[in-house]
UniProtKB/TrEMBL annotation:
Domain (N-acetyltransferase) ranges: 1-141
Protein name in the entry: GNAT family N-acetyltransferase
GO molecular function, one term: acyltransferase activity, transferring groups other than amino-acyl groups
Signal peptide stretch: none
Any one Pfam family match given in the protein's UniProt record, by short name: Acetyltransf_1
Sections of the chain in a coiled coil: none
Organism superkingdom: Bacteria
Length: 162
């Protein structure tokens, strides 16, 4: 598995990835609006240079925030490897924790993160409704038929700094 820093991937390829998988190169979550080309991150590339997994993050004063995580080949360890890489980066940058936000309908993400030591620490009721005012392409209902309306903040405390 080849993991590279996102800055080594052409901006057009990164923007196309976000447009295809997030509906836009802009990330809109409760903590802010982020532009994909400005975010730090890592990607897993296949032998043809295509992105098969991608994680982005923002460093804050005391914590790291994961703003997106995608694995196109599920159950291959891509998401786990990318998340570990960001956790290591955060430790090296002396951050105390990693946080991320997902939506109430994203059951796969909730399972994935909780298995890796993340805890739900806050719920933002109707946060997606507010985001939809700025980004109308956000769907109303998930593929499983769950109304998409709340954001959940998850956190993992990072114990050791290496």
């Amino acid at each position: 598995m080849k993991i590279v820093e996102s800055c080594r991937i052409p901006a057009a390829q990164r923007n196309d990835f976000f447009a295809e998988h997030w509906g836009s190169p802009k990330m809109l979550i409760s903590t802010g609006i982020y532009s994909s080309e400005a975010l730090d991150g890592y990607a897993v590339l296949n032998d043809h240079g295509e992105i098969r997994g991608y994680i982005t993050y923002v460093m804050h004063d005391d914590r790291c925030e994961v703003t997106s995580l995608d694995s196109l080949d599920e159950n291959q360890g891509i998401g786990s490897a990318l998340l570990r890489r960001v956790e290591d980066t955060a430790r090296q940058a002396y951050r105390n924790s990693i946080q991320l936000i997902t939506t109430n309908d994203n059951l796969r993400a909730l399972l994935f993160y909780q298995k890796r030591g993340y805890q739900i620490i806050r719920i933002y009721p109707d946060a997606v409704e507010k985001a939809r005012a700025l980004k109308p392409s956000i769907p109303l209902v998930s593929d499983q038929g769950i109304p998409i309306r709340d954001e959940l903040l998850l956190q993992k405390i990072l114990i050791s700094h290496t």
